[in-house]
Write a structure and sequence with these properties.
The protein contains 6 helices and 3 strands, in the order H-E-E-E-H-H-H-H-H. The protein has 2 domains: 107 residues, Adenine-n6-DNA-methyltransferase TaqI, Chain A, domain 2; 37 residues.
């Protein structure tokens, strides 16, 4: 067994990867909150969800240099969702029927500002507040669906 990484497992999404839509509705960004295909134990696990990126999205994984500069996955997600980040992303879109972004253009042209320590702390606090709000919204959607479906549930034949 060599020390070479298994390229099949490297392609799987990992915790703290970001997914960015680059085809169709460009600019949607999500943070992967769980491990998908890789864990503490390098041996394969049957219970892992092995997820890979489709052609409509690109996975972004921060390198060591980004982490040294203070760019965290939460910071990058928050920036890419901001009006400034969205403007940068959407300015790269080409195509009338199905807008899309060239990955090389994305990597070479989008500029991520490096946060100061006090900015980063504030952004992380805002990120946690947004996560709490999203959880509440998800729960409210669940309750709304439950109310409307309890009288007329879908009956499978």
């Amino acid at each position: 067994m060599s020390g070479e990484p298994n390229h099949k497992t490297i392609a799987y999404l990992e915790k703290n990867d970001l997914l960015l839509s680059i085809k169709g509705t460009v600019g949607l960004v999500r943070l992967i909150s769980g491990d998908y295909g890789k864990g503490e134990d390098p041996a394969p696990k049957e219970e892992w969800v092995k997820a890979v990126v489709s052609g409509s999205c690109v996975a972004l994984r921060l390198g060591l240099n980004a982490k040294r500069l203070g760019v965290s996955p939460e910071y990058l997600l928050t920036y890419l969702r901001s009006p400034e980040g969205q403007q940068q992303i959407k300015s790269l879109a080409v195509g009338a029927a199905v807008p899309h972004i060239n990955v090389q253009s994305l990597v070479s042209m989008v500029r991520i500002p490096v946060p100061r320590a006090d900015e980063l702390a504030s952004i992380h606090q805002d990120y946690r507040a947004l996560c709490e709000m999203e959880e509440k919204i998800d729960y409210l959607h669940y309750q709304m669906n439950d109310i409307t479906e309890k009288h007329w549930p879908v009956k499978l034949a």
